[in-house]
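Please decode residue identities from the backbone states below.
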């Protein structure tokens, strides 16, 4: 029963991380298209969209938050393993649990503040400074979703470690 629950939770974390990463990839393609459009407009027609800077900034933020969980599951997060790699297996596992738990606590702290900011933006109706006047709850909501998916991925990783699963090495996928 517990094993099956862990498998389902891991599948949920993997699926949401994959979906968030897909959205991040689509955002990246949209950013590239917008930048190319801006270059074309400026060079050929001496005009601008007047939106590129803002939308690319929102896109960059979306990519960072939405791709974090997939990066964790792919073993692609930047790590400093100089000391950890030299530790024996059991010690390394429990140090990894402590470090992943500390990371989870930090991300939960960020999530709480992102949630409060999202609520303020939603209630105030604040909009961006560009002519598009993007409601600021939209990019804030994207960050919130990315943080939630990252929280789930971190929690699943910690549970897997405690249950005896492998410590992720750089480039090693969470299967």
């Amino acid at each position: 029963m517990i094993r099956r629950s862990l498998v389902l939770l891991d599948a949920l974390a993997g699926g949401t991380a994959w979906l968030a990463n897909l959205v991040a990839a689509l955002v990246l393609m949209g950013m590239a298209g917008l930048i190319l459009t801006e270059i074309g407009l400026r060079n050929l027609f001496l005009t601008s969209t007047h939106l590129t800077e803002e939308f690319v900034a929102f896109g960059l933020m979306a990519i960072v938050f939405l791709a974090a969980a997939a990066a964790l599951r792919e073993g692609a997060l930047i790590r400093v393993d100089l000391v950890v790699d030299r530790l024996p297996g059991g010690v390394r596992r429990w140090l990894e649990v402590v470090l992943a738990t500390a990371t989870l606590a930090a991300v939960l702290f960020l999530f709480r503040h992102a949630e409060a900011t999202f609520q303020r933006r939603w209630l105030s109706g604040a909009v961006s400074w560009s002519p598009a006047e993007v409601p600021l709850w939209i990019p804030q909501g994207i960050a919130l979703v990315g943080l939630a998916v990252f929280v789930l991925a971190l929690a699943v990783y910690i549970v897997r470690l405690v249950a005896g699963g492998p410590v992720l090495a750089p480039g090693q996928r969470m299967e």
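Observation: The chain has one domain: 2-162.
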